[in-house]
Amino acid sequence: MANKAEKRIIRLENVTRIYKVGIERIHALDGIDLELRENEYVAVMGASGSGKSTLMNVMGCLDRASSGYYELDGQDTTKMSDAALARVRNERIGFVFQSFELLGRLSTLKNVEMPLIYSRNGWWSRRKRAKNVLERVGLGDRIKHKPNQLSGGEKQRVAIARALVCNPSILLADEPTGNLDSKTSEGILELFDRLHQEGQTIIIVTHEIHVARHAKRIIHMRDGRIYSDLPREQDSVFKATIQNDLQEEQA
Amino acid sequence: MRALIRAPIVFFQLSYQSVYLALGQIWTNKTRSILTTIGIVIGVASVTAVIAALTGLKAKILTQVETFGTNTIFVFPRRPEKGPMRHASWWTIRFLPEHLDGLLEHCPSVERFSRIGSVGRHTVRYGEWSVENIDVTGIESSYHEIESRPVVLGRTFSVIDDMQVRPVCLIDPKLRDKLHLDRDCIGQSILIGHNRFRIVGVIERRPELRLGEGGEEYYEIFIPFRTLFKLGKPWIMAFAASKSAEVLEEAQGEIKFFLRRTRNIKPTEPDTFRVESLQSALETFNKIALIVTLVAGGIVGISLLVGGVGIMNIMLVSVSERTREIGLRKAVGAKKSAILTQFLIESVVLCFFGGLVGVGFGQLLTMGIANIPRVELDMAYIPLWAIGLSFGFAGSVGIFFGMFPAIKAARLDPIEALRHE
């Protein structure tokens, strides 16, 4: 396990992402250097406009860097074709979105099966794999339900199951608890903790401290740059807020 | 090797999934689907019905060709379209028996011919039973060798029947039953008007083709040509047969030339009669059928175009409604080609659905026209190739008009799509 944890999954070198709005050039990412190893649990924090969503899109291969180098699982993704990137997304990346993005017409099982439809080798076993992963997230008894018959927490669990069904190298979650109440959120975050213990590499993009608190490594972004990247225990902002919380509690 | 097997599997799984999704989509938006496909439905329904009608008519005419044979020629009086005779009364242009005397000697391509006369509206009686308004037909013995209508009982007419002006007759089985004659009625006597006739045979009925003549019962009774003059002044025409199908046109030409002379038509004046063959009737029919098919094709083309624009419109709506779904599918690894396939299949399924409903309506229309009385379309049916053609057209419309929305969907940027409200 220790050896496996050494394995590098993500490497970004001087990655930029520049949008052109009229004649203006906006540096959404402005020279990002980042390495992630297997089984890390990272929270990317920052205000809106800090570039955290762009970073997630680039790491998730939904977007391409304007310049720089991005390596995922030892593969250089910067020169890949669109079709190859689609395959990378299918096989190596699991997305969890704030608003779940389940297809209302399909049952839970069909929703979870969906990525395997586009997969090269998961098709024949897709039903079994979807059932297994639904059991992993604790929804083995909900496979026939349609999304509108599920609670918000259950919907997000289905979405997580869908993200996991292809056995991705990284799980990318963008504000996964943004649409949930705090109690349900806690349940989802406990699920993330469990997945992390089972060996899953997780990146959560969030601006909420109580979400980030579950991660082991905190990355802060501002103006397209990383200005802090430390283990949770050493993270200054994080410590400060904990102290604030303590002070509030004491008060 | 695995890659070779994979490609069709991937296509199959995408198709299966897309067809399933498309059917779901159609089912959820029932009203919209019906309105959208109405152009396709109308197009397919009308083309199948028109083809069915033409097929039925052609089948009907072909059964006639079978009884007459391809080298039969029909000669009958007809007012010309031009010249001083165009307003002539039917009586002035009628055939007289002597107009046809010596026809065989002067027309070397003609094998045989028979004068046929008819005297209308006689009452036929047997004992206390009677049938009114029967057309009595006078024929020469050679008639039996031109139109293949078997005499199922008794005998055919001989030359002697005609020469001796014998009071004999052939009747059709329906008339026999109507008059309550014995099943074997040979030798029994009936009254036609006030003249007594002896039945010598029962002649089979013609396969029924009464274009525009109405559905009322008709009966046939045949007597020798010369005997006919006892009953009144007949309306005369003639059947002839050419020596072979190859010399059919020569035979027609010879008959025309011969008749112009016997009827004293001046060289500058048009014919006051027609010399037709089933071959030429069939050619005329084929010409009309072609025109009808082209006109119907035009109508169908327009309605398919309108239908196609409807399909394109609804597919564009579908793409924009499902932008987030497209974004999600791309995020979990759907390639452009997969999205393209999904939307193309959806549009094709929609068009096939329209085609299916259209063929259904076409079948109903066909059953409708087949049951209209007084129109000879009871043999109308939709041939299999027409159904295939309809689905082919519907599918092509689906692909053609679904292509633009599908490309639009495939080109969506996943990030933008997922942000779409």
Determine the N-to-C terminus distance of chain B.
Answer: 44 Å
As a whole number of angstroms, the C-alpha radius of gyration of chain A is 18 Å
What's the arrangement of strands in the largest beta sheet of chain A?
A: 6-7-8-3-9-10
SS strand fraction of chain B: 15-25%
Average pLDDT, all residues of chain A:
89
Number of strands of chain A: 10
User: Biggest sheet of chain B, in brief?
Assistant: 6 strands, mixed, barrel
Distance between the termini of chain A: 44 Å
Structure description:
The complex is a heterodimer of chains A (251) and B (421). Chain A has 251 residues and is α/β, with parallel strands linked by helices. Chain A has helices at 2-6, 52-59, 82-92, 108-117, 126-136, 152-164, 182-197, 209-212, 236-250, and strands at residues 8-21, 24-37, 41-45, 67-72, 75-76, 93-96, 170-174, 201-206, 217-222, 225-231. Chain A has one domain (39-63, 89-250): 3-Layer(aba) Sandwich (Rossmann fold), CATH 3.40.50. Chain A has a six-stranded mixed sheet, with helices on both faces. Chain A has a four-stranded antiparallel sheet with strand order 2-1-4-5, covered by helices on one side. Chain B is 53% helix and 17% strand. In chain B, a hairpin with a 2-residue loop joins strand 2 (110-126) and strand 3 (129-139). The mean pLDDT of chain B is 86. At the A-B interface, helix 3 and helix 4 of A face helix 1, helix 9, helix 10 and helix 12 of B.
